[in-house]
Amino acid sequence: MVHSILIIEDDKELQRYYKNLLLANDYITTITENKIQTLEFLKKTLPDLIIFDVETLHENDEILYTQLHNNYPELPILIITTEKNMDLIKHFEINDQYYLLKPFDTENFITRINAILEKNGTHKETFLQIADLTLDTKTLEVHRGGEEIRLTPLEFKLLQYLMSNQGRILTRQMILSRIWLYSSDIETRVVDVYVGYLRKKLDTGHTQKLVHSIRGFGYVIKE
Which pTM value belongs to this model? Predict the structure, then answer.
């Protein structure tokens, strides 16, 4: 499974740092800057992990953390903070694994993320299936209804990402991050073009459509 991480951070420089670091380690990243953006995003799709950077503790940070914890109890949250904010950790009785103090080294940061994801049971699948559509990452074969579908390498990668997150809405930005790594010469409309290619190959001639558009947000593959 391709892991998706939501970063709550309002500092532009730190946003770039987290995004580049996580992309380099093969994670999909989305950034929100405040409570409203965060809650709106979570209404559409849930990440595998939230990274909440609390540099200077404000009342709104405590309110947001409490709301996230109450509304999404199964969703792990990694708090990034400083020694001066340890009262927050004590107040919420956060387990040692779920907070990291600044400054930290990048290896420790990535190791902590991997440990949390492993604890929560996420893993990479080699054989994916939804309805009568199958994808095998070992043989690089795709079949629907028993018939082989020939895809280009980019189409295969896109389909694998969609199927690894079946039922989860993926934004165009998330897809760009994963498939095109936010190349400067790539626009979000290229996502629409390639999803269109997939739809034509996967859904044409089938009553049950698997690839769906979510207007103004992105795409999802589901039965």
Answer: 0.58
Instruction: Decide if domain 4-119 falls under CATH 3.40.50.2300.
Output: yes
Residue 41 tokens read as 């995003």
What separation in angstroms does the CA of 92 have from each of 22, 99, 104, 155?
27, 11, 22, 44
Residue at 102: amino acid letter: K
Task: Return the axis-axis angle of helices 12-24 and 106-119, rounded to nearest 10°.
Answer: 70
Contacts of 121 (CB under 8 A, 6+ apart): none
Compute and round to an integer the Cα radius of gyration of the chain: 19
- The per-residue pLDDT for range 146-160, each reduced to its tens digit, is 999 999 988 998 999
Contacts of 92 (CB under 8 A, 6+ apart): 65, 66, 69
CATH class label, 127-221 = mainly alpha
